[in-house]
Structure to design on (462 residues):
């Protein structure tokens, strides 16, 4: 269940995959050749190209459970209070130092980012334990202010290939940082990114710990949907390629192994056609194959999940339809504190129940065409049905009651504004309201209304 601050903007991101352009998207074939530039040959020096940047995010969320649902607050392991409302308000700040690369055939660089969180609402009755939103102690009190090393790594570069070791931000379909709280997650390990060709890139990595969004310590990896939070994985390995055979077509293929959990394979393509001044069309297919592996700590898994979305854009207006389906008796699962679910209908709910089918309709209005650049509005509705886990034989997931009749729906509205100039240029404010309803208590996302207001201000120090 992904409670994303960008949940109601999932449609927006999809629609904006069609770039506004003055002429039709070219369908021209792109021959693969060596990149025309060499990033390392242009290195300016370790200190000469150093910079200190950052951002501060004011993150507010107000949730209300309906139809009798309640949040619970515990003290020293015992539930002491229940309430249908939960409020979290946190200020997250990141200060990031990034050096330049040293000159020469092999360049070296480093990055260090300090993360700081301040709980602006510390009322126990509001926080209701905080979950993964506000860091709390065992007695339910908020940790008023805390800091940690969010990023800390060293890099070596040859030509257009960079090796990174340490705590880092990763964004791939099989392991990806998630930034839907006041602070994002990050990962401890080693990765390599190679961009030696003009339209073909390769990346791989191995990670043994995650730095969660709302915790100070590093933790092992665990599943997002497991019923047993004590089942953990020691390592995640991944590799993938991104290839652009046409100017209008982007494809990706990734593989990963979560030790003793599962093997996962991912494929996608994004094709753009037409002219958005008249009519632009975008087609996006995402497909995951997940299969149990090693000690099978998550039990038997054999899951195929895909989504197909179509977006039509005419000037300021974008209309989208997306269909998503899960083939298998388990949830489509991914790692907790990651955003490794590149599916069209991953919203407040992920619409990823066993054998679930879902449809989403949405509309995006970009006010730039009406003289207000940076202002956007969107609305969507999604419905999931046919959730059936009756064939599940394992113990890792709680699928009791998922008998094929379980269904749910979600709708959301949102607006965002990004400042286009001035000292606060690129600052963004997002307001979203989302409603989710289910016809059965067995549906994991329940019945909830949620309002979020998120303001992000970037800044440069040096």
């Amino acid at each position: 269940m992904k409670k994303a601050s960008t949940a109601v903007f999932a449609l927006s991101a999809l629609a904006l995959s069609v770039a506004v352009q003055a002429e039709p998207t070219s369908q021209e074939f792109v021959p693969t050749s060596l990149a025309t530039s060499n990033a390392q040959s242009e290195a300016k020096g370790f200190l000469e190209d150093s910079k200190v940047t950052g951002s501060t995010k004011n993150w507010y969320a107000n949730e209300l459970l309906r139809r009798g649902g309640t949040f619970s607050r515990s003290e020293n392991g015992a539930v002491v209070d229940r309430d249908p409302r939960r409020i979290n308000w946190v200020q997250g700040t990141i200060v990031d130092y990034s050096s330049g690369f040293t000159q020469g055939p092999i360049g070296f660089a480093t990055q260090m980012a300090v993360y700081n969180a301040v709980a602006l609402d510390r009322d126990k009755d509001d926080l209701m334990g905080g979950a993964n939103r506000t860091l709390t102690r065992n007695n339910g009190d908020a940790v008023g202010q805390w800091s940690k090393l969010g990023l800390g790594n060293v890099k070596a570069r040859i030509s257009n290939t960079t090796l990174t070791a340490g705590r880092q931000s990763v964004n791939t379909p099989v392991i990806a940082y998630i930034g839907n709280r006041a602070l994002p997650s990050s990962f401890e390990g080693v990765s390599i990114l190679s961009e030696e060709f003009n339209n073909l890139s390769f990346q791989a990595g191995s990670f043994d710990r995650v730095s969660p969004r709302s915790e100070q310590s590093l933790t092992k990896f665990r599943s997002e949907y497991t019923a047993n939070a004590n089942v953990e994985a020691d390592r995640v390995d991944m590799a993938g390629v991104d290839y652009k055979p046409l100017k209008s077509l982007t494809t990706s293929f990734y593989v990963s192994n979560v030790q003793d959990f599962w093997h996962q394979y991912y494929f996608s393509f994004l094709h753009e056609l037409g002219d958005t001044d008249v009519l632009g069309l975008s087609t996006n297919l995402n497909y995951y194959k997940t299969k149990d592996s090693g000690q099978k700590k998550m039990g038997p898994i054999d899951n195929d999940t895909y989504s197909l979305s179509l977006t039509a854009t005419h000037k300021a207006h974008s209309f989208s339809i997306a269909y998503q389906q899960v083939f298998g008796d388990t949830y489509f699962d991914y790692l907790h504190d990651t955003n490794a679910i590149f599916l069209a209908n991953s919203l407040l709910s992920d619409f990823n129940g066993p054998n679930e089918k879902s449809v989403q309709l949405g509309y995006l209005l970009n006010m730039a065409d009406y003289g207000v650049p940076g202002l956007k509005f969107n609305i969507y509705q999604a419905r999931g049905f046919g959730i059936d886990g009756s064939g599940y034989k394992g113990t890792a997931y709680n699928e009791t009651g998922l008998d094929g009749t379980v269904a749910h729906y979600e709708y959301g509205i949102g607006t965002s504004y990004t400042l286009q100039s001035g000292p606060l240029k690129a600052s963004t404010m997002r307001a979203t309201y989302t409603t989710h309803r289910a016809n059965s208590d067995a549906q994991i996302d329940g019945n909830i209304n949620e309002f979020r207001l998120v303001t992000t201000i970037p800044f440069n120090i040096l």
